[in-house]
TrEMBL record:
Substrate binds at residues 8-15, 58, 82-85. The active site is at residues 9, 82. InterPro entries: His_Pase_superF_clade-1, His_PPase_superfam, PGM_Phosphatase. SUPFAM superfamilies: Phosphoglycerate mutase-like. GO terms for molecular function: phosphatase activity. This is Probable phosphoglycerate mutase. One of its GO terms (cellular component) is cytoplasm.
Amino acid sequence: MTRLIVWRHGNTDWNAADRVQGQTDTALNDLGREQAATAAPLLAALRPDAIVASDLQRAADTAAALAALTGLPVATDPRLRERHYGLWQGLTMPTIAERYPAEYARWRAGDQAPGCEVESLDDLGKRVGEALQEAADAVPGGTIVIATHGGAARQGCGHVLGWPPAVLRTVGPLRNCYWTELRHDEVRGWQLRAHNTGATTQSSAPAPI
């Protein structure tokens, strides 16, 4: 059975300010580095065989915390970057709503391609999904940790699972430094095994009997 652990990067100052990052190359803040250091031992305990990350520094630096514990190299793949938000990158949501009310309304309603040079969800899902599948194919039967971004993780996992947009829209966003787990076997294909797993969910889980 092949296992993909799709891990969102740690917190950034733009996350804290509710500012749209997209493919802007922002860095982890102190909280983000702490989150990565806290999550890394939990992921190391899963005995990963490979680590792959988006080439944006907030994801690559998150992956580096795990690499430091496992000794594994971090391969980077630009296809794992976050959705490109076009004219919205660097803006807060209130500013976007004020400057681009029609496009913002379409985005809120679930439009796949709302305009303003924002990458379509279909294109995002395909590029991230292809990267996830190739990472899995490279280590058949292994465990691969993918350090990426919140929107990229959701759409990429949805593409791999074959979920339609209406279903995927109901999936809640990943918290910083939390992850989604997918598993694949030859009989049932890809399956969602866990979502929004992290330090808090691990520590609050009941002890095995």
